[in-house]
């Protein structure tokens, strides 16, 4: 199987696997206790926190570990809004944020707050001027902007958004799930979220970083762990493995991400040449290095994914729809592009160029057969 769905989850990095196995033997104890095994667990947890903070550009005491990237986003959004309630009840987001941001925004609205959604261009990038205008509105408590879109890979103008937020005195939450460990995290954020399984760590570890000086109050009942930000017992072995994976991915990123970007460039150029009626979606230049999304006219996305799966290719739909709901993607709708028949190819570290060759070799015939079965010439 050629695995092309790294945007959903990156395969476990070999160094993460080694670190996880070793930490299971020595990091199992409660890191909040004072006896020997617990002190060892605390040392492992503190070291992992420092390593992750260094890669993300944060201080160790700004970083807390959650159970997932989704929980990190929920706590980041709702905690910052709660901490800045006296400044206002207004939340600004882009129209293409991850569903975790949108769901947190929905909770904020049901609690009496307001949400302004800033539209995007056809490439999927938010308009910096429109984002700045929204942030400058009175009563804005928080703004949210992802580093790169999870469905089409387009990089967002985080630096410009951060400057606008700084001038307005509004904290900026940056969701770095798709780029952490792959490209440097843009400066200027007040709250940062990420997810370990996106960079080759184990599932079940999210990262929430809150800058010193940012007003934040937990929306959950208070707990003594993780700086009183996240309740529950820390999974020390998984956190240690997450740190090992992030450190390794960041060290490899200079060469490996350049290689993956070259493979994506080749696919962006070749697919429209070999398959008729194809639209490549997302910014061709300002993009995450490992993601490509395209739409094939007159082809159902689910049929294409199933056919590719039988041929040994694991890809996902660039749409957020599922076979059970058939709901179109809010990202693709906001971009004004085709919301059906989408395929997202996202390359993991180490993928062989030969697998790209094989994918390009079978794709034209697969699309042709599906169109013929649907009665389309």
For this entry, give a set of tags.
single chain, 377 residues, alpha/beta, Aspartate Aminotransferase, domain 2, Aspartate Aminotransferase, domain 1, 7-stranded mixed beta sheet, 12 strands, 41% helix, globular
What does this structure look like?
- The protein is an alpha/beta fold.
- It folds into 2 domains: 14-248, 3-Layer(aba) Sandwich (Aspartate Aminotransferase, domain 2); 253-373, Aspartate Aminotransferase, domain 1 (Alpha-Beta Complex).
- The chain has helices at 14-26, 36-56, 69-83, 99-110, 128-135, 158-168, 236-274, 301-310, 330-335, 353-373; strands at residues 2-3, 63-66, 90-94, 114-118, 140-146, 172-175, 191-195, 206-210, 278-281, 291-296, 313-314, 342-346.
- Strands 2-8-7-6-5-3-4 form a 7-stranded mixed β-sheet, sandwiched between helices.
- Helix 2 (36-56) packs parallel to helix 7 (236-274), helix 3 (69-83) packs parallel to helix 4 and helix 7 (236-274) packs across helix 10.
- The radius of gyration is 21 Å and the shape is globular.
- It starts with a strand and ends with a helix.
